[in-house]
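Aim 2 progress. For Beta 3-glucosyltransferase a, the working sequence is reproduced below.
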Amino acid sequence: MDSLQDLGVVRCNCTELDKMTDFFFFYSLPLVLRSHFDCSGRESHGALYLREIVFIIQSQSNSFHVTQAERRRADLLEQARSFTEKPPVVLLLHGLSDNEGDWSILPLLPHLSHSFGKNSSWIVYLEEETNVKLTALVKVLAKFDKNKEWFLGKPLCDEESTIIHHYAFAENPSIFKYPDFAASWALSIPLVVRLANKVKEEPLKSDFTIDLKHEVALYIWDSGKGPHLTAVPELCTVPEDSPQASHCATTLSKEPPLCGEPVNKEDIFVAVKTCKKFHSERVPVIKKTWEKDALFLEYYSDHADPSIPTINLGVPNTERGHCGKTFAILQRFLSSAVPDTKWLLIVDDDTLISIPRLQALLSCYDSSEPVSLGERYGYGLSQGGYSYITGGGGMVFSRETVVRLLSSGCKCYSNDAPDDMVLGMCLNALGLPVTHSPLFHQARPEDYARDFLAHQVPISFHKHWNIDPIAVFNKWLKDDFTASQDELQSAKTEL
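Predicted C-alpha coordinates for this construct:
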Protein backbone atom coordinates (compact mmCIF):
# COMPACT_ATOMS: atom_id res chain seq x y z
CA MET A 1 0.00 0.00 0.00
CA ASP A 2 1.26 3.48 -0.86
CA SER A 3 2.24 5.71 2.02
CA LEU A 4 0.36 8.88 2.74
CA GLN A 5 3.34 10.85 1.50
CA ASP A 6 3.25 8.96 -1.79
CA LEU A 7 -0.41 9.87 -2.14
CA GLY A 8 0.37 13.54 -1.75
CA VAL A 9 -0.83 13.91 1.82
CA VAL A 10 1.24 16.06 4.13
CA ARG A 11 1.81 14.67 7.61
CA CYS A 12 0.80 17.17 10.27
CA ASN A 13 -0.07 17.28 13.93
CA CYS A 14 -3.59 17.85 15.19
CA THR A 15 -3.19 21.60 15.52
CA GLU A 16 -2.02 21.81 11.94
CA LEU A 17 -4.76 19.45 10.78
CA ASP A 18 -7.52 21.70 12.09
CA LYS A 19 -6.04 24.58 10.12
CA MET A 20 -5.60 22.56 6.94
CA THR A 21 -8.94 20.76 6.66
CA ASP A 22 -9.70 22.13 3.20
CA PHE A 23 -6.22 21.24 1.88
CA PHE A 24 -5.46 17.96 3.60
CA PHE A 25 -6.40 15.52 0.84
CA PHE A 26 -5.55 15.48 -2.83
CA TYR A 27 -6.62 13.49 -5.84
CA SER A 28 -9.78 11.50 -5.07
CA LEU A 29 -9.24 10.75 -1.41
CA PRO A 30 -12.23 11.26 0.90
CA LEU A 31 -12.54 14.35 3.05
CA VAL A 32 -12.08 12.24 6.19
CA LEU A 33 -9.72 9.23 6.41
CA ARG A 34 -10.37 6.25 8.62
CA SER A 35 -8.84 6.77 12.03
CA HIS A 36 -9.75 6.01 15.60
CA PHE A 37 -9.87 9.55 16.97
CA ASP A 38 -10.09 12.98 15.39
CA CYS A 39 -8.16 15.97 16.70
CA SER A 40 -10.86 16.94 19.19
CA GLY A 41 -10.47 13.58 20.87
CA ARG A 42 -13.82 12.31 19.60
CA GLU A 43 -13.99 8.99 17.89
CA SER A 44 -13.94 9.08 14.09
CA HIS A 45 -15.42 6.04 12.43
CA GLY A 46 -14.18 5.99 8.89
CA ALA A 47 -13.73 7.31 5.41
CA LEU A 48 -16.60 9.40 4.12
CA TYR A 49 -16.80 10.45 0.51
CA LEU A 50 -19.04 13.28 -0.68
CA ARG A 51 -20.73 10.83 -3.04
CA GLU A 52 -21.94 8.83 -0.01
CA ILE A 53 -24.16 11.71 1.11
CA VAL A 54 -27.62 12.25 -0.31
CA PHE A 55 -29.04 15.69 0.44
CA ILE A 56 -32.82 16.08 0.25
CA ILE A 57 -34.05 19.65 0.28
CA GLN A 58 -37.56 19.71 1.72
CA SER A 59 -38.86 21.76 -1.17
CA GLN A 60 -42.36 22.68 -2.34
CA SER A 61 -43.87 22.99 -5.80
CA ASN A 62 -44.82 26.67 -5.56
CA SER A 63 -42.61 28.76 -7.87
CA PHE A 64 -41.06 30.81 -5.05
CA HIS A 65 -40.11 27.70 -3.12
CA VAL A 66 -38.75 25.96 -6.20
CA THR A 67 -36.43 28.94 -6.75
CA GLN A 68 -35.33 28.86 -3.11
CA ALA A 69 -34.61 25.13 -3.24
CA GLU A 70 -32.70 25.38 -6.51
CA ARG A 71 -30.51 28.08 -5.00
CA ARG A 72 -29.79 25.82 -2.04
CA ARG A 73 -28.88 22.95 -4.38
CA ALA A 74 -26.65 25.18 -6.49
CA ASP A 75 -24.82 26.37 -3.37
CA LEU A 76 -24.14 22.80 -2.23
CA LEU A 77 -22.85 21.74 -5.63
CA GLU A 78 -20.72 24.86 -5.92
CA GLN A 79 -19.08 24.04 -2.58
CA ALA A 80 -18.52 20.47 -3.77
CA ARG A 81 -16.62 21.75 -6.82
CA SER A 82 -13.74 22.76 -4.58
CA PHE A 83 -13.09 19.07 -3.96
CA THR A 84 -11.74 16.69 -6.53
CA GLU A 85 -14.04 13.82 -5.64
CA LYS A 86 -17.47 13.03 -7.01
CA PRO A 87 -20.14 15.44 -5.68
CA PRO A 88 -22.98 14.44 -3.39
CA VAL A 89 -26.47 13.74 -4.67
CA VAL A 90 -28.77 16.72 -4.09
CA LEU A 91 -32.50 16.12 -4.56
CA LEU A 92 -35.57 18.34 -4.32
CA LEU A 93 -38.26 16.63 -2.29
CA HIS A 94 -41.22 17.94 -4.28
CA GLY A 95 -39.81 16.52 -7.51
CA LEU A 96 -39.08 12.96 -6.42
CA SER A 97 -42.46 11.56 -7.43
CA ASP A 98 -46.06 12.51 -8.07
CA ASN A 99 -47.08 11.23 -4.64
CA GLU A 100 -48.71 14.04 -2.64
CA GLY A 101 -47.53 12.45 0.59
CA ASP A 102 -43.80 12.65 -0.09
CA TRP A 103 -43.45 15.75 2.09
CA SER A 104 -44.34 13.57 5.09
CA ILE A 105 -41.01 11.70 4.59
CA LEU A 106 -42.05 8.22 5.75
CA PRO A 107 -43.88 7.09 2.56
CA LEU A 108 -40.74 7.98 0.61
CA LEU A 109 -38.39 5.73 2.59
CA PRO A 110 -38.79 2.60 0.40
CA HIS A 111 -37.80 4.65 -2.66
CA LEU A 112 -34.75 6.06 -0.87
CA SER A 113 -33.72 2.63 0.36
CA HIS A 114 -34.01 1.14 -3.13
CA SER A 115 -32.17 4.01 -4.82
CA PHE A 116 -29.39 4.67 -2.32
CA GLY A 117 -29.27 1.70 0.05
CA LYS A 118 -26.17 0.13 -1.51
CA ASN A 119 -23.90 3.02 -2.43
CA SER A 120 -24.67 5.76 0.08
CA SER A 121 -24.11 6.24 3.80
CA TRP A 122 -26.27 9.18 4.85
CA ILE A 123 -29.54 10.88 3.95
CA VAL A 124 -29.38 14.51 5.06
CA TYR A 125 -32.57 16.58 5.04
CA LEU A 126 -32.46 20.36 4.68
CA GLU A 127 -35.05 23.07 4.62
CA GLU A 128 -34.85 25.68 1.89
CA GLU A 129 -33.45 28.24 4.36
CA THR A 130 -30.76 25.93 5.80
CA ASN A 131 -27.23 27.06 5.00
CA VAL A 132 -24.61 24.31 4.90
CA LYS A 133 -20.85 24.48 5.38
CA LEU A 134 -20.12 21.34 3.41
CA THR A 135 -16.65 20.59 4.74
CA ALA A 136 -17.79 21.03 8.34
CA LEU A 137 -20.85 18.84 7.83
CA VAL A 138 -18.83 16.00 6.34
CA LYS A 139 -16.48 16.15 9.33
CA VAL A 140 -19.48 15.91 11.64
CA LEU A 141 -20.98 12.89 9.87
CA ALA A 142 -17.61 11.10 9.83
CA LYS A 143 -17.66 11.00 13.64
CA PHE A 144 -20.48 8.46 13.52
CA ASP A 145 -20.16 4.85 12.41
CA LYS A 146 -22.03 4.80 9.12
CA ASN A 147 -22.63 1.07 9.45
CA LYS A 148 -24.88 1.60 12.45
CA GLU A 149 -28.30 3.18 12.85
CA TRP A 150 -28.17 6.90 13.55
CA PHE A 151 -30.79 9.61 13.80
CA LEU A 152 -29.01 12.97 14.09
CA GLY A 153 -30.29 16.50 14.58
CA LYS A 154 -30.76 19.51 16.80
CA PRO A 155 -33.17 18.36 19.52
CA LEU A 156 -36.39 20.07 20.47
CA CYS A 157 -38.65 19.04 23.33
CA ASP A 158 -42.00 20.02 24.77
CA GLU A 159 -42.05 21.78 28.11
CA GLU A 160 -45.64 20.66 28.65
CA SER A 161 -47.85 18.15 26.89
CA THR A 162 -49.57 19.65 23.90
CA ILE A 163 -52.52 18.95 21.65
CA ILE A 164 -50.43 19.22 18.48
CA HIS A 165 -48.49 16.17 19.70
CA HIS A 166 -51.62 14.36 20.90
CA TYR A 167 -50.47 14.97 24.50
CA ALA A 168 -47.62 12.49 24.05
CA PHE A 169 -45.46 11.77 27.12
CA ALA A 170 -47.97 13.67 29.25
CA GLU A 171 -46.22 12.85 32.54
CA ASN A 172 -42.87 14.25 31.37
CA PRO A 173 -42.98 15.57 27.79
CA SER A 174 -39.43 16.93 27.94
CA ILE A 175 -37.95 13.42 27.88
CA PHE A 176 -38.75 12.95 24.19
CA LYS A 177 -36.54 14.76 21.68
CA TYR A 178 -37.40 15.48 18.08
CA PRO A 179 -35.40 17.37 15.42
CA ASP A 180 -35.64 21.01 14.45
CA PHE A 181 -35.85 20.58 10.68
CA ALA A 182 -34.41 24.06 10.11
CA ALA A 183 -31.04 22.90 11.48
CA SER A 184 -31.03 19.89 9.10
CA TRP A 185 -31.29 16.29 10.26
CA ALA A 186 -29.78 13.03 9.08
CA LEU A 187 -30.44 9.31 8.92
CA SER A 188 -27.77 6.69 8.37
CA ILE A 189 -28.49 4.30 5.53
CA PRO A 190 -28.82 1.21 7.79
CA LEU A 191 -31.64 3.02 9.59
CA VAL A 192 -33.24 4.09 6.30
CA VAL A 193 -33.19 0.52 5.03
CA ARG A 194 -34.77 -0.91 8.17
CA LEU A 195 -37.43 1.79 8.31
CA ALA A 196 -38.19 1.28 4.62
CA ASN A 197 -38.84 -2.41 5.23
CA LYS A 198 -41.04 -1.52 8.17
CA VAL A 199 -43.07 0.90 6.05
CA LYS A 200 -43.56 -1.77 3.39
CA GLU A 201 -44.55 -4.46 5.87
CA GLU A 202 -46.70 -2.38 8.23
CA PRO A 203 -49.00 0.34 6.90
CA LEU A 204 -48.49 3.69 8.61
CA LYS A 205 -51.04 3.93 11.40
CA SER A 206 -51.75 7.65 11.81
CA ASP A 207 -54.44 9.17 9.61
CA PHE A 208 -53.32 12.72 10.31
CA THR A 209 -49.96 14.40 9.79
CA ILE A 210 -49.93 17.45 12.05
CA ASP A 211 -46.38 18.15 13.27
CA LEU A 212 -44.14 16.19 10.94
CA LYS A 213 -40.88 16.50 12.87
CA HIS A 214 -42.44 15.06 16.02
CA GLU A 215 -44.25 12.29 14.16
CA VAL A 216 -41.13 11.21 12.24
CA ALA A 217 -39.20 11.04 15.52
CA LEU A 218 -41.94 8.94 17.12
CA TYR A 219 -41.92 6.53 14.20
CA ILE A 220 -38.15 6.13 14.36
CA TRP A 221 -38.16 5.74 18.14
CA ASP A 222 -40.80 2.99 17.77
CA SER A 223 -41.86 2.83 21.45
CA GLY A 224 -38.23 2.52 22.52
CA LYS A 225 -37.21 -0.18 20.06
CA GLY A 226 -35.53 2.25 17.67
CA PRO A 227 -32.82 4.88 18.11
CA HIS A 228 -33.36 8.11 19.97
CA LEU A 229 -32.41 11.39 18.35
CA THR A 230 -28.70 12.05 18.85
CA ALA A 231 -27.96 15.72 19.51
CA VAL A 232 -25.36 17.23 17.20
CA PRO A 233 -24.26 20.68 18.44
CA GLU A 234 -22.83 21.59 15.03
CA LEU A 235 -26.36 21.55 13.57
CA CYS A 236 -27.53 25.06 14.38
CA THR A 237 -30.35 27.52 13.83
CA VAL A 238 -28.39 30.70 14.59
CA PRO A 239 -28.04 33.29 11.81
CA GLU A 240 -25.17 32.63 9.44
CA ASP A 241 -23.39 35.87 10.42
CA SER A 242 -23.82 35.33 14.16
CA PRO A 243 -20.73 35.05 16.42
CA GLN A 244 -22.26 31.81 17.73
CA ALA A 245 -22.07 30.30 14.23
CA SER A 246 -18.31 29.70 14.21
CA HIS A 247 -18.63 26.06 15.28
CA CYS A 248 -21.72 25.34 13.17
CA ALA A 249 -22.01 23.13 10.12
CA THR A 250 -25.48 24.48 9.41
CA THR A 251 -27.03 27.89 10.03
CA LEU A 252 -30.04 29.89 8.92
CA SER A 253 -30.25 32.80 6.56
CA LYS A 254 -29.81 35.97 8.57
CA GLU A 255 -33.19 37.42 7.71
CA PRO A 256 -36.69 36.19 6.88
CA PRO A 257 -37.70 36.10 3.22
CA LEU A 258 -38.68 39.43 1.72
CA CYS A 259 -38.96 39.38 -2.02
CA GLY A 260 -39.77 43.03 -2.62
CA GLU A 261 -42.03 45.60 -1.08
CA PRO A 262 -44.71 44.15 1.21
CA VAL A 263 -48.01 43.76 -0.61
CA ASN A 264 -50.42 46.62 -0.12
CA LYS A 265 -53.20 46.44 2.42
CA GLU A 266 -55.53 47.14 -0.50
CA ASP A 267 -54.57 43.73 -1.94
CA ILE A 268 -55.75 41.64 1.04
CA PHE A 269 -59.36 40.93 1.99
CA VAL A 270 -59.84 39.50 5.48
CA ALA A 271 -62.78 37.26 6.39
CA VAL A 272 -63.36 36.49 10.07
CA LYS A 273 -65.65 33.56 10.92
CA THR A 274 -67.61 34.11 14.12
CA CYS A 275 -71.02 33.44 15.66
CA LYS A 276 -73.37 35.25 18.00
CA LYS A 277 -72.16 33.62 21.21
CA PHE A 278 -68.62 34.94 20.61
CA HIS A 279 -69.55 38.50 19.56
CA SER A 280 -68.81 39.84 23.03
CA GLU A 281 -66.00 37.43 23.93
CA ARG A 282 -63.70 37.00 20.92
CA VAL A 283 -64.48 39.84 18.53
CA PRO A 284 -63.35 42.53 21.04
CA VAL A 285 -59.92 40.86 21.15
CA ILE A 286 -59.54 41.27 17.39
CA LYS A 287 -60.62 44.90 17.62
CA LYS A 288 -58.04 45.58 20.35
CA THR A 289 -55.19 43.83 18.52
CA TRP A 290 -54.95 43.37 14.77
CA GLU A 291 -58.16 44.65 13.17
CA LYS A 292 -56.67 48.14 12.64
CA ASP A 293 -53.98 46.69 10.35
CA ALA A 294 -56.52 45.29 7.88
CA LEU A 295 -57.97 47.72 5.35
CA PHE A 296 -60.72 45.40 4.10
CA LEU A 297 -62.22 43.16 6.79
CA GLU A 298 -65.64 41.64 7.35
CA TYR A 299 -67.02 39.54 10.20
CA TYR A 300 -69.31 36.68 9.13
CA SER A 301 -71.78 35.33 11.66
CA ASP A 302 -75.13 33.63 12.07
CA HIS A 303 -76.46 36.91 13.40
CA ALA A 304 -76.24 40.39 11.91
CA ASP A 305 -75.01 42.77 14.59
CA PRO A 306 -74.59 46.35 13.32
CA SER A 307 -72.51 47.36 16.32
CA ILE A 308 -69.56 45.23 15.16
CA PRO A 309 -70.75 44.98 12.33
CA THR A 310 -71.29 41.33 11.39
CA ILE A 311 -72.79 39.92 8.20
CA ASN A 312 -75.21 37.00 8.18
CA LEU A 313 -74.46 34.90 5.11
CA GLY A 314 -77.62 32.86 5.55
CA VAL A 315 -75.72 29.79 6.71
CA PRO A 316 -76.80 28.37 10.10
CA ASN A 317 -74.10 28.23 12.74
CA THR A 318 -72.59 24.81 13.35
CA GLU A 319 -70.63 23.59 16.35
CA ARG A 320 -67.83 22.36 14.13
CA GLY A 321 -66.60 22.27 10.56
CA HIS A 322 -68.14 25.52 9.26
CA CYS A 323 -67.76 24.38 5.65
CA GLY A 324 -71.00 26.03 4.53
CA LYS A 325 -69.90 29.37 5.95
CA THR A 326 -66.46 29.16 4.38
CA PHE A 327 -67.81 28.41 0.91
CA ALA A 328 -70.24 31.30 1.24
CA ILE A 329 -67.21 33.48 2.01
CA LEU A 330 -65.43 32.22 -1.12
CA GLN A 331 -68.45 33.10 -3.23
CA ARG A 332 -68.74 36.54 -1.66
CA PHE A 333 -65.03 37.18 -2.28
CA LEU A 334 -65.59 36.83 -6.04
CA SER A 335 -68.75 38.92 -6.02
CA SER A 336 -69.18 42.68 -6.44
CA ALA A 337 -70.19 42.94 -2.77
CA VAL A 338 -66.55 43.28 -1.66
CA PRO A 339 -63.48 45.04 -3.09
CA ASP A 340 -61.62 43.28 -5.88
CA THR A 341 -58.43 42.12 -4.12
CA LYS A 342 -55.61 39.72 -4.94
CA TRP A 343 -55.57 37.77 -1.69
CA LEU A 344 -58.18 36.29 0.64
CA LEU A 345 -57.33 35.59 4.29
CA ILE A 346 -59.84 33.47 6.22
CA VAL A 347 -59.40 33.27 10.00
CA ASP A 348 -61.33 32.13 13.05
CA ASP A 349 -62.48 34.64 15.63
CA ASP A 350 -59.83 33.29 18.02
CA THR A 351 -56.97 33.62 15.55
CA LEU A 352 -54.24 36.12 16.45
CA ILE A 353 -52.38 37.33 13.37
CA SER A 354 -49.90 39.97 12.22
CA ILE A 355 -51.16 41.59 9.03
CA PRO A 356 -47.89 43.52 8.41
CA ARG A 357 -45.87 40.31 8.61
CA LEU A 358 -48.33 38.62 6.27
CA GLN A 359 -47.90 41.53 3.85
CA ALA A 360 -44.14 40.96 3.92
CA LEU A 361 -44.45 37.21 3.39
CA LEU A 362 -46.87 37.59 0.49
CA SER A 363 -44.27 39.64 -1.36
CA CYS A 364 -42.66 36.29 -2.18
CA TYR A 365 -45.73 34.87 -3.91
CA ASP A 366 -47.33 35.52 -7.28
CA SER A 367 -51.03 36.24 -6.84
CA SER A 368 -51.68 35.21 -10.45
CA GLU A 369 -50.74 31.65 -9.49
CA PRO A 370 -53.06 29.29 -7.56
CA VAL A 371 -51.54 29.84 -4.11
CA SER A 372 -52.95 28.25 -0.94
CA LEU A 373 -50.76 29.21 2.00
CA GLY A 374 -50.68 28.50 5.73
CA GLU A 375 -49.79 25.69 8.11
CA ARG A 376 -50.02 22.45 6.16
CA TYR A 377 -51.51 19.31 7.63
CA GLY A 378 -52.06 15.99 5.91
CA TYR A 379 -54.75 13.32 5.93
CA GLY A 380 -54.11 9.73 4.83
CA LEU A 381 -50.89 10.68 3.08
CA SER A 382 -49.56 7.12 3.08
CA GLN A 383 -52.71 5.88 1.34
CA GLY A 384 -53.04 8.49 -1.39
CA GLY A 385 -54.62 11.17 0.79
CA TYR A 386 -54.31 14.94 0.60
CA SER A 387 -52.80 18.01 2.21
CA TYR A 388 -54.73 20.96 3.57
CA ILE A 389 -54.20 24.33 5.23
CA THR A 390 -55.38 24.05 8.81
CA GLY A 391 -57.92 26.78 9.42
CA GLY A 392 -57.09 28.09 12.88
CA GLY A 393 -53.72 29.50 11.91
CA GLY A 394 -55.24 31.33 8.96
CA MET A 395 -55.83 30.23 5.37
CA VAL A 396 -54.50 32.46 2.58
CA PHE A 397 -55.74 32.02 -0.99
CA SER A 398 -54.87 33.88 -4.15
CA ARG A 399 -57.84 35.02 -6.23
CA GLU A 400 -56.81 32.48 -8.87
CA THR A 401 -57.19 29.67 -6.35
CA VAL A 402 -60.69 30.78 -5.37
CA VAL A 403 -61.71 31.08 -9.03
CA ARG A 404 -60.52 27.56 -9.80
CA LEU A 405 -62.08 26.08 -6.67
CA LEU A 406 -65.54 27.47 -7.35
CA SER A 407 -65.35 26.85 -11.11
CA SER A 408 -64.62 23.19 -10.44
CA GLY A 409 -67.93 22.64 -8.70
CA CYS A 410 -66.20 21.86 -5.42
CA LYS A 411 -68.66 22.11 -2.55
CA CYS A 412 -69.39 20.99 1.00
CA TYR A 413 -71.07 17.67 1.65
CA SER A 414 -72.65 19.31 4.72
CA ASN A 415 -72.57 22.70 6.41
CA ASP A 416 -70.66 21.25 9.36
CA ALA A 417 -68.05 19.42 7.29
CA PRO A 418 -64.46 20.45 8.16
CA ASP A 419 -63.92 23.37 5.81
CA ASP A 420 -60.12 23.17 5.69
CA MET A 421 -60.15 19.45 4.87
CA VAL A 422 -62.84 19.82 2.19
CA LEU A 423 -60.78 22.57 0.60
CA GLY A 424 -57.74 20.28 0.75
CA MET A 425 -59.63 17.50 -1.02
CA CYS A 426 -60.73 19.93 -3.72
CA LEU A 427 -57.23 21.34 -4.22
CA ASN A 428 -55.85 17.82 -4.45
CA ALA A 429 -58.45 16.83 -7.05
CA LEU A 430 -57.53 19.91 -9.10
CA GLY A 431 -53.80 19.21 -8.79
CA LEU A 432 -53.21 22.54 -7.05
CA PRO A 433 -50.42 22.78 -4.47
CA VAL A 434 -50.83 23.43 -0.76
CA THR A 435 -47.94 25.61 0.39
CA HIS A 436 -46.62 25.32 3.92
CA SER A 437 -45.25 28.13 6.05
CA PRO A 438 -44.07 27.33 9.59
CA LEU A 439 -44.87 30.93 10.54
CA PHE A 440 -48.59 30.13 10.80
CA HIS A 441 -49.57 28.26 13.97
CA GLN A 442 -52.73 26.28 14.69
CA ALA A 443 -52.10 26.41 18.43
CA ARG A 444 -50.83 28.76 21.17
CA PRO A 445 -47.17 29.73 21.71
CA GLU A 446 -47.15 27.44 24.77
CA ASP A 447 -47.83 24.47 22.50
CA TYR A 448 -44.53 24.81 20.60
CA ALA A 449 -40.95 24.18 21.66
CA ARG A 450 -39.27 27.37 22.80
CA ASP A 451 -36.20 26.77 20.60
CA PHE A 452 -38.45 26.27 17.58
CA LEU A 453 -40.09 29.68 18.02
CA ALA A 454 -36.77 31.35 18.85
CA HIS A 455 -35.68 31.52 15.21
CA GLN A 456 -39.04 32.60 13.83
CA VAL A 457 -40.89 35.84 13.22
CA PRO A 458 -44.32 34.23 13.63
CA ILE A 459 -47.36 35.37 11.67
CA SER A 460 -50.19 33.75 13.62
CA PHE A 461 -51.30 31.77 16.65
CA HIS A 462 -54.68 30.28 17.49
CA LYS A 463 -56.91 29.68 20.53
CA HIS A 464 -57.66 31.78 23.60
CA TRP A 465 -57.68 28.77 25.90
CA ASN A 466 -55.94 29.42 29.24
CA ILE A 467 -54.10 32.49 27.96
CA ASP A 468 -54.52 36.24 27.84
CA PRO A 469 -54.86 36.63 24.05
CA ILE A 470 -54.09 40.35 24.06
CA ALA A 471 -50.89 39.75 26.02
CA VAL A 472 -49.94 36.94 23.63
CA PHE A 473 -50.51 39.21 20.64
CA ASN A 474 -48.45 42.01 22.18
CA LYS A 475 -45.56 39.68 22.99
CA TRP A 476 -45.42 37.62 19.81
CA LEU A 477 -47.11 39.46 16.97
CA LYS A 478 -47.25 43.19 17.61
CA ASP A 479 -45.03 45.43 15.49
CA ASP A 480 -44.96 49.16 16.18
CA PHE A 481 -43.64 49.88 12.71
CA THR A 482 -44.18 49.21 9.06
CA ALA A 483 -42.23 46.04 8.42
CA SER A 484 -38.94 46.37 6.54
CA GLN A 485 -36.17 43.84 6.17
CA ASP A 486 -33.97 45.31 8.92
CA GLU A 487 -36.89 45.78 11.27
CA LEU A 488 -38.15 42.23 10.77
CA GLN A 489 -34.68 40.95 11.67
CA SER A 490 -34.72 43.12 14.80
CA ALA A 491 -38.08 41.65 15.79
CA LYS A 492 -36.76 38.15 15.15
CA THR A 493 -33.80 38.79 17.45
CA GLU A 494 -36.02 40.10 20.22
CA LEU A 495 -38.35 37.06 20.03
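Residues 1-29, 33-44, 482-495 have pLDDT under 50 and may be disordered. This observation will guide construct design in the next reporting period.
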